[in-house]
Amino acid sequence: SVQLRIRTATQRNSSMMRCAVQFVMGCRGRRYADAFEKVFDLPSLVETVQKSANKPEEEAKEMVKSSKRYLDCKFLAVVGVVRDAVVCEPNGQVQLDGIGLDNWLRIRRYLRVADITPEPHHGAP
Predict the structure, then answer these.
(1) Per-residue DSSP letters for 5-59?
(2) pLDDT tens digits, the chain, 125 residues: what are they?
(3) Shortest CA distance to 107 belongs to which of 78, 74, 72?
(4) Nearest Cα to Cα of residue 81 among 38, 30, 22
(5) What CA–CA distance (Å, rounded) separates 34 from 19?
(6) How many CB atoms lie within 10 A of CB 31?
(7) What is the domain partition of the chain in residue ranges?
(8) Residue from 78, 67, 13 nearest 40 by CA
(9) Cα–Cα distance measured from residue 59 to residue 66, given in angstroms and rounded to the nearest whole number
């Protein structure tokens, strides 16, 4: 039914916003980063952070900007490609760890959290 689809979409959007706010508040897991990336430019994120953190609007905006910078700079660690930072074995050529932040940010513009397939968890089913 239409009502069920509306309720499902509303719940999904609400859950996504909660996860995005949690990313801004310091939960740096992949799920939170994915949600944040999808809504970081929506005014409703700043409003929700403002309410959740009980902060003035300008401070909430800065928290969102800071979280965006964090995700941009730490992207490969957040999505699980590397543990902490990119480190390449020296081979005499320019490699990913030596391209500089400006060039990394140019590459990052084309990458999304959802683009990176997470490693399967091994162990108990």
Answers:
(1) HHHHHHHHHHHHHHHHHHHHTT---HHHHHHHHHHTT-HHHHHHHHHHHT--HHH
(2) 999 999 999 999 999 999 999 999 999 999 999 999 999 999 999 999 999 999 999 999 999 999 999 999 999 999 999 989 899 998 989 899 999 999 999 999 999 999 999 877 665 55
(3) 72
(4) 30
(5) 9
(6) 14
(7) 2-112
(8) 67
(9) 10
Model pLDDT, residue 118: 84
Question: Cα-flanking dihedrals φ and ψ of residue 5, to 5°?
Answer: -65, -40
Distances (CA, A) of 25 to 8, 46, 85, 93, 102: 26, 12, 22, 39, 26
What is each CA distance from 115 to 34, 37, 77, in whole angstroms? 10, 12, 14
Tokens of 3: 């009502």
Residue 123's φ and ψ, nearest 5 degrees, are 125, -145
